[in-house]
Design brief:
It is a single chain. The protein is of the alpha/beta class. The chain has a domain at 349-497: Isoleucyl-tRNA Synthetase, Domain 1 (Orthogonal Bundle), CATH 1.10.730. It is 46% helix and 14% strand. It contains 19 helices and 16 strands. The strands form four sheets. Strands 1, 2, 3, 4, 8, 13 and 14 form a seven-stranded parallel beta sheet that branches. It is elongated and about 95 Å long. The two termini are 46 Å apart. 40% of the residues are buried. It binds 5'-O-[(L-methionyl)-sulphamoyl]adenosine (MSP).
């Protein structure tokens, strides 16, 4: 079977990461880990978008060369991914010579088949958005709105891509491929954007205006415009045109085995026009068939009190601060449990504190701690399943068995928050089971010894299942939990290997250590 090829957007390196960036990478990492446990080989690509005018400007301001500047910002991203356990297989940095060679080979290919042409143009240009503006972009008062920043009048020659030739194809493709975009309702936004007279796409900037980019191979007085450069990362680092570009020996994956990607994980702001119009049309123009068009997974945004995070509002949330307070896994949990994939969510101190103290410390951690503690106290940490059974045991076993299919269905369809909720049914049921079976009372009555054995066994066994199901979300904490249960997930273990009865007679549990110690806080640093 073909590997599950998953990518994320590559992050702009003009500023350090915030929780929006962290969410996207954690979301993709959760899916990559889920797919591996689901029996798929996975290739996970992420990286950084290092070219463009914004970077050139920020570097000038900082008194650094663009390369020095992007190297500095890139280091913040890399260290955050390391901290948050985002484990990727490929790193896409657009200044990497591997990437530049493919972009140039691809541009030459499009040039050779007549898809690019040069033309003069006079018009208004947004420096902030790096694009020419048309009357469509004017507000009701006839002016260009604040979102465009500084707008200047420019006259220059540029290279254009024959985007408009392929718009009819794209409309047909979108209508006949309802799976192209998740969530499906976003396809309407794309079709609406394709209404009206199609325009071609300017793909260059004269070198005097922008030098921090990849030169066009057929006209070195121009560099490639950022989107054409950035989007290509999904194929350049997957081995596209490796031999033709001179990347034959650099250890890239085999493109024919990897492509198409089953998930380009991106935010809603870069769906139209970049990922849903430019990208499929670029691939189509390069000769990719309809079956070779990648799938787009479009997530929503994390806002703060309903507002967009921005430097000027001073409301940017630093994931490093949150990871230091709530642990990296605590942050991964919050970022995946408190948002429905495809929709927006609001970051709040109260919610992250609640998710940590009530759910992780109080619900999950407490269950583990009391299960392991009681087994240590009453049975010297040795499990004896025995033959005792009753309706309460049967009900807990049923909850554990039923959780798996619900979890698998939700997780594989990107409803991560519902997948977590499905796994959490075991946690809630097991906590209620402790409350109702009262092992501390059973321990006082020698006639209840067999029942106590079965209760301790059921709790430990339920934990094995929880530790596998929540592993994609909280890999470190779940490995710690397994060490306490004394059960290691074997190499190559899959969800389909999970059956009731993973722990055998005489199983030795480890020592209890609080998994998520309760935090005495009411507010965070942010
Ligand atoms: N460099 C481009 C993407 C090129 S992909 C070929 C870019 N970079 S970005 O740094 O601005 O954004 C990177 C990703 O983070 C995007 O998918 C974007 O949607 C996402 N997010 C940025 N802010 C976000 C939130 N506040 N919340 C959730 N995701 C957000 O766009």
């Amino acid at each position: 079977m073909k590997p599950y090829y998953i990518t994320t957007a590559i992050d702009y390196t003009n500023a350090p990461p915030h929780i929006g960036h962290a969410y996207e990478k954690v979301l993709a990492d959760v899916m990559a880990r889920f797919q591996r446990l689901n029996g798929r080989e996975v290739y996970f690509l992420t990286g950084v978008d290092q070219h463009g005018q914004k970077v050139q400007k920020s570097a000038d301001k900082a008194g650094q060369s663009p390369q020095e500047f992007v190297d500095g910002v890139t280091a913040h991203f890399v260290s955050l991914w390391e901290k948050l356990n985002v484990r990727y297989d490929g790193w896409a940095a657009t200044t990497d010579p591997v990437h530049k060679r493919v972009v140039q080979t691809m541009l030459q290919k499009l040039h050779d088949c007549g898809q690019l042409y040069k033309q003069g143009y006079k018009g208004f240009y947004s420096v902030r958005q790096e694009q020419f503006l048309t009357d469509k972009e004017r507000g009701p008062d006839g002016n260009f709105g604040e979102e465009w920043g500084e707008v200047v009048e420019l006259e220059e020659e540029n290279w254009y891509f024959r985007l408009s030739d392929h718009v009819e194809w794209l409309k047909g493709y979108i209508r006949s491929h309802p799976d192209f975009i998740y969530p499906a309702h976003r396809a309407n936004d794309v079709l609406n954007a394709l209404e009206g007279t199609p325009q071609d796409l300017c793909i260059s900037r004269p070198i005097e205006r922008l030098s921090w980019g990849i030169p066009l191979p057929f006209d070195e007085r121009f560099v490639n415009y950022v989107w054409f450069d950035a989007l290509t990362n999904y194929i350049s680092f997957a081995g596209y045109l490796a031999d033709e570009s001179g990347n034959g020996d650099v250890g890239l994956p085999d493109f024919s085995k990897l492509w198409p990607s089953e998930a380009h994980v991106i935010g809603k702001d870069i769906l139209v026009p970049a990922h849903a119009v430019y990208w499929p049309i670029m691939l189509h123009a390069l000769g990719f068939s309809d079956e070779q068009i990648p799938r787009l997974i479009v997530h929503g945004w994390w806002n703060v009190k309903g507002a967009k995070m921005s430097k000027s509002l001073g409301n940017v949330i630093d994931p490093n601060v949150l990871a230091a307070t709530f642990t990296p896994d605590g942050l991964r949990y919050y970022l995946t449990r408190d948002i429905a994939t495809g929709y927006d969510s609001d970051f709040s101190d109260e919610r992250i504190i609640m998710s940590y103290n009530k759910e992780l410390a109080g619900g999950l951690g407490n269950l583990l701690n009391r299960s392991i503690n009681m087994a240590q106290k009453y049975r010297a940490s040795v499990l004896t399943p025995g033959t005792y059974d009753d309706a309460e045991n049967a009900a807990l076993r049923q909850t554990v068995t039923d959780a798996l299919p619900a979890y698998l269905e939700n997780m594989s369809s990107w409803a991560i928050h519902d997948g977590i909720a499905a796994a959490w049914k075991i946690v809630s049921a097991a906590n209620a089971y402790v409350d109702s079976t009262k092992p501390f009372s059973l321990a006082k009555d020698p006639a209840q010894a067999a029942r106590l054995d079965s209760v301790l066994y059921h709790l430990a066994e339920a934990w094995v299942h929880v530790s596998v199901l929540l592993n994609p979300i909280m890999p470190t904490a779940m490995a710690t939990a397994r060490a306490q249960i004394g059960w290691e997930m074997p190499e190559g273990f899959q969800f389909s290997d999970l059956k009731w009865g993973m722990l055998k007679e005489g199983h030795q549990l480890g020592a209890p250590v609080p998994l998520f110690p309760r935090l005495e806080i009411t507010e965070t640093a942010d």
